[in-house]
């Protein structure tokens, strides 16, 4: 799907390029610019709702997301160094799409959740605080 090479940082990369952009309402070039970790988080959040049997459109309560992530290297190591990718994505979109603060709000927006979408960044205690 994407023409960006797999990361060389030792992290698992199987399927990093198989994100279903259309399913989540992204243009392929827009999705290409998003860190694979953030794409995967969106997919996992959707799967969690699906497995739990919650339909955000019909659920009467609030469904929220509190999440944080580590510094992303994808933007600097893969996207910005790839002239062809930058031509498709654009500098603004590439930078905007990889902000750590967008992780939780992106999930809330893309999955139409009605509860809070809060990005939590607290160094080593992010998961505990979230």
Describe the structure.
By secondary structure, the protein is mainly α. The chain has helices at residues 28-32, 36-52, 74-79, 83-89, 91-97, 103-110, 126-129, and strands at residues 65-67, 117-119. α2 (36-52) crosses α6. The protein is globular and about 45 Å long. The N and C termini lie far apart (32 Å).
SSE layout and pairings?
Blueprint: H1 28-32, H2 36-52, E1 65-67, H3 74-79, H4 83-89, H5 91-97, H6 103-110, E2 117-119, H7 126-129
Parallel strand pairs: 1-2
Helix pairs in contact: 2-6
Main sheet: strand order: 1-2
Task: Provide mean pLDDT, rounded.
Answer: 85
Query: Using only CA atoms, what is the Rg?
Result: 15 Å
Helix content: 40-55%
Structural class estimated from helices and strands: mainly alpha
| Principal-axis shape | globular
Low-confidence runs: 1-7, 9-13
Short description:
By secondary structure, the chain is mainly alpha-helical. The chain has helices at residues 28-32, 36-52, 74-79, 83-89, 91-97, 103-110, 126-129; strands spanning 65-67, 117-119.
Descriptive terms for the model:
mainly alpha, 130 residues, 5% strand, two-stranded parallel sheet, disordered N terminus
């Amino acid at each position: 799907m994407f023409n960006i090479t797999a990361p060389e940082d030792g992290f698992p990369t199987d399927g990093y390029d198989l994100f279903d952009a259309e399913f989540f309402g992204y243009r392929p070039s827009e999705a290409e610019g998003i860190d694979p970790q953030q794409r995967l988080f969106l997919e996992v959040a959707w799967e969690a709702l699906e497995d739990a049997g919650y339909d955000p459109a019909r659920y009467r309560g609030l469904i929220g997301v509190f999440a944080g992530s580590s510094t992303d290297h994808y933007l600097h190591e893969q996207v910005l160094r790839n002239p062809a990718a930058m031509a498709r994505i654009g500098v603004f979109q590439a930078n905007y799409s990889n902000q750590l603060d967008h992780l939780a709000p992106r999930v809330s927006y893309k999955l139409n959740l009605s509860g809070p979408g809060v990005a939590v960044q607290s160094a080593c205690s992010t998961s505990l605080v979230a």
